[in-house]
Here is the input.
Amino acid sequence: MATTRHKVVLARHGETSWSRDWKHTSFSDIPLTPHGREQAACLAPGLEKFDFALVLTSPLVRARETCRIAGLGGRAELEPDLVEWNYGAYEGRTTAEIRESVPGWTVFSHPCPQGETAREVAARVDRVIARARAADGDVVLFAHGHVLRVLTARWLDLDPREGRHFVLSTGTISVLGWERDTPALELWNATG
Here is the structure.
């Protein structure tokens, strides 16, 4: 692992109608709600405290729109590895609906038919982490709840399924950093 000690800021997109209704949203390109746009604007003051060497965003509209409203759209590079976990057949369904046929289901513990596994998501975010650690300074990632939770687990050298321990709300900022030589969590799930 690189020995750089810059920070990686995670910015979860603002609210969409599906996130508000607890529907699993991977590749459905759902825009922000008016409240989601307000959340994105509230991220700007916290992000202004950083001088980002690299701004990456998921190519999905909810992440790109959050990045733009937060003031970093002009600097953003699309990063396909930041797309949300592919929920496959569970796209657009709530956990409660899925549990009617698969008791106890969670995305971290059970498969998503025609979707991704935790290990497959981890392979994607490991590439993002390598890119972030190779940057010349602080990095910000605009993305989605589950993929950022897996990314956090991997940053901390944990199994990707341990992302289940990190609740991540829409329109929030989190900061990954270092405690001396150890990858660490500096700030989690902070609102504007």
Summary: Residues 8-190 form a domain with the Rossmann fold fold (CATH 3.40.50.1240).
